[in-house]
Amino acid sequence: MLQQTTDPGFGEKYANQTKRIINKDGSFNVVRKGGNFTSRDFYLFLINTSWPKFLGLMLLFYMLINLIFASIYFLAGIEHLANLPPDNKYLSVYFFSVQTFTTVGYGNISPQGIPANIVASFEAMSGWLFFALATGLLYGRFSRPSARILFSRNMIITPAEPWPKLMFRIVNQRSNMLMEMEGRMILVLADRSNNQHNRKYYALKLEIPNIVFFPMNWTMVHVINEESPLYGKTPEDLRRQEAEILIHIKGFDDTFSQVLHTRYSYRHEELVWNARFRRAYETDEYGNIIMHLDEIHNHEPVPETELVGSV
């Protein structure tokens, strides 16, 4: 009887069929509803969102704030703005708002009287706060640790003596040095008994669970022996049980002196049977090791003459 591992945090009992647990981008396939959205949540959203969304939101806020202040100048009376051109008044007031907000102050248009000066004072202070927050967000995005670990597109099962092996490869896409790497694999199988859709979790023991240095690719291997929860499984068994293999990688970033984490998963349809990986590195004439990052996906079928067994 195989021993299940502790629920890693995704729950076990479900009423209906579920999608994959971990998406290809490493995010969890969980939609959170309810709860109160706070300013702290918005800060975390801006820190974690993509660069195009972040820059787009910053530009949107910048334009919106200046539109609001330009409208306030109109409400306060544009006659309080000296040297305002007679044509395109709203556009001129908007650009005056931009110059005040950024504290540029070219001097072509200037506020006259108490109402306009009060608005300009509040706008200048708002500009300081906006750029202080934007600077903090930029620093947070650049300084937070993040991993760019490339996973092979497929996980493969290679026939070998005395037991077949389940394996996949990873490589660091950045030039920073990672070390003290650790890896974990968890097999998730669906159990549809009693009209329910439950999950069962099994730890997959790695042949080499950790390495000291990570300058090249790392092939992570699980031996499918009699102690493995995959022993005796066929592709049809894994499809029927909606098998998914969860991956957790942890390492130390020598550049930022921080620990990095990354996640990934392989579904049963992403397993390639009776295959082996091709070598993704070579040496040049000077003895340098050349690592081809885009070749870690390459694999080839094992010839029938070399097949020594099946899972």
Kindly describe this structure:
- With 311 residues, the chain is α+β, with helices and mostly antiparallel strands.
- It folds into two domains: 39-143, Helix Hairpins (Orthogonal Bundle), CATH 1.10.287; 146-306, Sandwich (Immunoglobulin-like), CATH 2.60.40.
- The protein has helices at 39-48, 51-76, 89-101, 114-143, 235-240; strands at residues 13-14, 81-82, 110-111, 149-151, 155-158, 165-172, 178-191, 197-204, 210-213, 218-223, 244-253, 258-267, 271-273, 275-277, 281-283, 289-291, 299-301.
- Strands 1, 7, 8, 9, 11 and 12 form a six-stranded antiparallel beta sheet that branches. Strands 4, 5, 6, 10 and 13 form a five-stranded mixed beta sheet that branches. A two-stranded antiparallel sheet has the order 2-3.
- Strand 11 and strand 12 form a beta hairpin.
- It is elongated and about 90 Å long.
- The mean pLDDT is 90.
Question: Top keywords for this entry?
Answer:
311 residues, Helix Hairpins, five-stranded mixed beta sheet, six-stranded antiparallel beta sheet, elongated, Immunoglobulin-like
Order of helices and strands: EHHEHEHEEEEEEEHEEEEEEE
Beta-strand share of residues: 25-35%
What form results from the Cα inertia axes? elongated
Q: Span between N and C termini?
A: 18 Å
CATH architecture term of the largest domain: Sandwich
CATH topology of the largest domain: Immunoglobulin-like
CATH class of the largest domain: Mainly Beta
Mean pLDDT: 90
Major sheet: size, sense and barrel closure? 6 strands, antiparallel
Structural class: alpha+beta
The name of the CATH superfamily of the largest domain reads G protein-activated inward rectifier potassium channel 1
Q: Figure out the total of helices.
A: 5
What is the domain total for the residues? 2
Number of strands: 17
Pfam family, one: Ion_trans_2
GO biological process, one term: regulation of monoatomic ion transmembrane transport
Transmembrane segments: 54-78, 90-109, 115-139
Domain Potassium channel: 65-138
